[in-house]
Every structure is written in C-alpha cells, then in structure tokens.
Amino acid sequence: MVAQRLLAEGVGTLKAAGIDGAARDARWLLAHALGIGRDRLALALADPVTQAQQSQFRQAIAARARHQPVAQIIGKRLFWGRSFQVTPDVLDPRPETETLIDCALKKPFSSVLDLGTGSGAILLSLLAERAQAVGVGADLSPKALAVARRNAEGLGLAVRAEFVQSDWFDGVSGTFDLIVSNPPYIAAPDYAVLDPEVRDWEPRMALVPEDCDGSGLASYRAIISQAPEHLTRGGWLLVEIGLGQGADVLALTTQAGMANGQVIPDMTGRGRVVIAQVV
Ligand SMILES: C[S@@+](CC[C@H](N)C(=O)[O-])C[C@H]1O[C@@H](n2cnc3c(N)ncnc32)[C@H](O)[C@@H]1O
User: Fold this and answer.
1) Which of 22, 38, 228, 279 can bridge 15 by disulfide, Cβ–Cβ 3.0-4.6 Å?
2) pLDDT tens-place string over residues 152-205
3) Ligand 1 atom 8: residue of nearest CA
4) Where are the beta strands (DSSP E) in the chain?
5) Of 140, 164, 224, 230, which is best to mutate to test ligand 1, by the most ligand atoms within 8 angstroms of its C-beta?
6) CA distance linking residue 65 with residue 85, whole number of Å
C-alpha cells in the first residue's frame, strides 16, 4: 500500500468519528508513523509503507477517533520553539501560554518559580532563554513532575531546574525574582461543556481549581495572597488568566499589596496574562 491510500483511509475514519480537522490530523499522524517531518509528507505520498508503519498509523487514527489529542498520541508538543514530552498526566502546553513567556522575558530575572509546572513548558522555556538563570517547578502531581524532569533532562536544563511536589507554596522555600503560573482556572460549571479532547483526556486537576464557589478563581487566591513573601523586592508575578478573569485577578494583586498591576492581551487582543510587582 502507498502512503496516499493509507492517508485517505485515515482521513475517512476521522471524518466518520466527527473529528474537526480530520485531514490535518491524519497527515500529522502519518508523518509521525513514517518517521518524517510534516513538511516532508507530500514528497512521501507515492512511496510504499511497511506493515509496521501501517499498523502504527491505524492505532494512532483509532486513538484520535476516540478524541485523544494528537500531542498525546505522538507524545510531544512544540512550545516556544522546543519539543516537550506530553503524556495524559500533563496539560498539553497551549500556544496562548506563549504570551506569558513573552511577558516574562521582558522582565529581568536570575531566579524563577513556576507554580503548577505540569510538563515544565513555562519554566524550561524561560531557563533555556536565560542561560544564567535557575528555577524551581512546583506541582501537586508527582506524575506531572516526572514528565517535567524528563523534559528538563531532554533539553539539557536539569542542572538549573529543581522540581518539588507542593500544594502551591507549601513545599517551596526562598524568594525568586519571578513567579510564573498557568494555574487551573476553568469554572466548575464550564468543565462539562469542554471539548472531549480536553475533558476526557487531560488531567482534571490541571483544568479546574478546588473552588468553593465554582468561580475558577481559587488558584489565583492561593497564589497571589502568598506571592509577595516569595518575591525579591522589585520582583514580578505573572499569571495566565481565563476569559473575563482580568479584573478579578488584578483586584487580588492589589489586595495582596502588589503594585503596577496590568492585564496583558494575547495576539487576539484578549486579556491573557496578569502581571504585578512587589515594590
Ligand atoms: C493549567 S496546568 C499548567 C501546566 C503548565 N504550566 C502549562 O502551562 O502547560 C495547571 C497545573 O497546576 C497543577 N496544580 C493543580 N493544583 C495545584 C496545587 N494546588 N498546587 C500545585 N500545582 C497544582 C496541575 O497538576 C497542573 O500541572
């Protein structure tokens, strides 16, 4: 069988399963099965595929038809120009989180704390861009921390990155020039209506905070109230926020005695990151 026919079979299976972007995803999964970059696939479509490649591709298509995200199936995601291992134990790093990286890199820092580090995508991207910096990644999930440690090893950053199991600041000591976080911020009532790719395949604890009121703000309350005591003077807190949470999160930074608070928009103009400083 040639690759083109296998691809058509995969697209048909995904369309029948109601997957948005069936053709795009099938091409991605075929390139992975063939062990080539997506940009090389067009050149390989007339080539025969081995039994092993067919079998790997069909298994991947079956997983995608069950709505498993592509990044989990192929086990990796490109974030801020680097490849991160992704498993069902971590949030698949989102392109919109690159807004937080962009903001953080505009601040001076030689030490950084990433709360809810997940795959380590934020912490490791920042350390990779600042050759002298050191950092700590904290997460409540030991399985997520195992993925983050593997990513640190893979990117050659393990000597500058420490990982700790911690309920926000509970297991963290010392002060940092920068505290960053993309915490769970989905309001409990919104969880049920998420896409199955997210709701059924990503860890619930990465998405929904333990709110008493279901507002999605519990993580911010915990993080922002304690951030000033863990920041060096002049240091910045940067948190990613969900839709419409800017004013509430900004108010929390003021209540915590922080200054220079701002809501930073992403490329679409939507408020995406709240920053505030300890002065
Ligand atoms: C939205 S994910 C962010 C993952 C990663 N930083 C990223 O941006 O791709 C939130 C992370 O917070 C972690 N988390 C949830 N509750 C926590 C808590 N109380 N203390 C520390 N980490 C927590 C989850 O395990 C998850 O890894």
Assistant:
1) 22
2) 999 999 999 999 999 999 999 999 999 999 999 998 889 999 999 999 999 999
3) 182
4) 76-79, 82-85, 111-115, 134-139, 161-165, 176-181, 231-240, 259-265, 271-277
5) 140
6) 22
